[in-house]
């Protein structure tokens, strides 16, 4: 039966991490910053089925926290910087990390949904 073959979740998630179509790995997954394209320009795979909700945001928050929180310990173990500069630099770093990580995590979630045929994929 056509279309029932098993899909490789690992490669689909890696393609999503690179913001590429989980099916072919060539077409762009997102248009703009976080909007999912309706379909892949290369293979025609319908992408509008993606329904990731808040999952990528929560996962991104955990990743950023796991990076930022230990940095406080490292910074204060090395020296005694002004707390205001530490707070400001960590806020900037956390924001930049979150903005970089969020679309990629969304791509991973969409890749997993595609591989597991969830939500109409
Ligand atoms: Zn494609």
Automatic annotation (TrEMBL):
<feature type="transmembrane region" description="Helical">
    <location>
        <begin position="84"/>
        <end position="102"/>
    </location>
</feature>
<feature type="transmembrane region" description="Helical">
    <location>
        <begin position="57"/>
        <end position="78"/>
    </location>
</feature>
<protein>
    <recommendedName>
        <fullName>DUF983 domain-containing protein</fullName>
    </recommendedName>
</protein>
<dbReference type="InterPro" id="IPR009325">
    <property type="entry name" value="DUF983"/>
</dbReference>
<keyword id="KW-0472">Membrane</keyword>
<keyword id="KW-0812">Transmembrane</keyword>
<keyword id="KW-1133">Transmembrane helix</keyword>
<dbReference type="Pfam" id="PF06170">
    <property type="entry name" value="DUF983"/>
</dbReference>
């Amino acid at each position: 039966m056509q279309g029932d073959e098993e899909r490789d979740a690992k490669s689909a998630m890696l393609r999503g991490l690179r913001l590429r179509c989980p099916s072919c790995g060539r077409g762009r997954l997102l248009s703009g910053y976080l909007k999912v394209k309706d379909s892949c320009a290369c293979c025609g795979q319908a992408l509008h089925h993606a329904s990731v909700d808040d999952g990528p945001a929560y996962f991104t928050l955990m990743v950023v926290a796991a990076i930022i929180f230990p940095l406080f310990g490292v910074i204060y173990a090395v020296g005694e910087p002004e707390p205001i500069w530490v707070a400001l630099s960590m806020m900037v770093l956390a924001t930049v990390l979150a903005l970089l990580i969020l679309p990629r995590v969304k791509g991973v979630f969409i890749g997993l949904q595609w591989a597991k045929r969830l939500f109409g994929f």
